[in-house]
């Protein structure tokens, strides 16, 4: 087992395990935040697995997850607007922590890859992951100020 696989095991075992528990239990506001964070933690885990096993196909899976995960959260935010309006979730700290983890993983992988097409794909995945989860987190907490309906 190399360092990349150990880091992936820590991220997937600890982070995704905690989000599965959050989705399965608790009030609605905790469940939607946990659903959003599962993407933010599974995607860096897949990137670490791709590096550890030397399988570029895992990066493709992480790219698709980084694109579709926040979109799924936005769908939940739209469908549950009424229920979340009374008690909106507040996950600013968790959002920043997940973004920091994603940025650290992307930075480490870019250093390991060096300048190449693979590095561009990792950077794109990181940008989609971090940006998408910030937008989804804002939508869950009541919308973006100045936007109609937000």
Structure report:
The protein starts with a helix and ends in a 10-residue tail after the last helix. The chain is about 80% helix and about 0% strand. α2 (about 30-55) runs parallel beside α5 (about 90-115) and α3 (about 55-80) packs parallel to α6 (about 115-140). The model is unreliable at about 145-150 (pLDDT under 50). The chain has one domain. With about 150 residues, it is mainly α. It has six helices and no strands.
Give the SSE layout.
Layout: H1 3-24, H2 28-53, H3 57-79, H4 81-86, H5 92-113, H6 117-140
Feature tags:
82% helix, 150 residues, mainly alpha
- Mean pLDDT figure: 86
Choose one word for the global shape.
elongated
One letter per element, helices H and strands E, the order comes to HHHHHH
C-alpha end-to-end distance: 47 Å
Q: Give the helix tally.
A: 6
Return the domain count.
Answer: 1
The proportion of residues forming helix, as a percent range, comes to over 70%
The biggest beta sheet is recorded as:
none
Structural class: mainly alpha
Give Rg in angstroms: 16 Å
Q: Which stretches are low in confidence, meaning pLDDT under 50 for 5 or more residues running?
A: 146-150
Q: Note the beta-strand portion.
A: under 5%
- Please tally the β strands and state the result: 0
